[in-house]
Amino acid sequence: MNAIAAERSKLLSSRSIWWCAGLSVLLVAGPVGLIAAVPESGWQPDGTEFLTLGQLVVLVLAALTVTGEYRHGTIRVTFLAVPNRTTALLAKTVVVALASGVVGLIAGLAGRGTAWLMQPDTGLAELGSGPWRAVAGSAAVFALSAVLAVAVAILLRSTAGSLSLLLGWVLVIEPVVASLPRVGDDIGRWLPFANADHFLYAGLPEPGSIFDAGMPFGPWGALVYFAGIAAALLMAALGVANRRDA
Asked: Which of 131, 48, 140 is nearest to 100 (CA)?
């Protein structure tokens, strides 16, 4: 608990967490407001369409909480204060994941609230349970995304390398895999962020996942699968961190 308290103090005392949290919410709610303000477009947003943009900011923030310490050497002080590296890194992961989950929930509510304020007739109840799952589930997806980003940052320890891999995976690799002839669908449906999108958007009029046509699991199964990948990667990262020099 002392390690968690120390990590919470480090995270919340940094201005970057507040800037990134605000940017994440803005990237989710801002485009919704712009689209809803132009009824001629014929698109009635439900407020969940741009959660992926906020998720990208969380990936960056979570990675920087680790690589920043390696870059400035403060991770050595952390390991001296908490000799058990697994405990120290797990405490950091828990704090970052919880903070990211709160940001995700606020972003989901902000996006939905913006859509409702701009177009009050687009009620969540009219669309079934899908939008409710996306709004509330954004907390879980953002938190698990942070765990995955922390794991990658522990493995690579480089800011440039971690951000390049994380953003490149989400924005380039998964979409490219989806477009591969013959094998794209078979491989793509097992990719982590495709399953996260499936959890958020399955059943909505405009699904956010490019693999919605043939996902191996339902929405909740996809979330469990995404959580399993994040947990496995974190375990691998902790094993590597305990074997090499700080």
From this structure: 140
pTM: 0.88
- Output phi, psi for 231, to 5 deg: -65, -40
| Residue 208 DSSP one-character state | S
Cβ–Cβ < 8 Å for 88, 79: yes
The DSSP annotation for 60-100 comes to HHHHHHHHHHHHHTHHHHHHHHS--HHHHHHHHHHHHHHHH
Record the tokens describing residue 79, joined without a space: 């390991």
Residues 200/138, Cβ–Cβ less than 8 Å: yes
Number of other residues whose CB lies within 10 A of the CB of residue 239? 12
End-to-end CA distance of the chain: 23
Residue type, position 71, single letter: R
pLDDT tens per residue, range 53-87 = 999 999 999 999 899 888 888 888 888 887 788 88
Which tokens belong to 47?
């407020």
pLDDT tens for residues 206-225? 544 454 457 778 889 999 99
CB of 51 within 8 A of CB of 107?
yes
Task: Using alpha carbons, list the distances in angstroms from residue 12 to 65, 88, 98, 197.
Answer: 11, 17, 12, 28
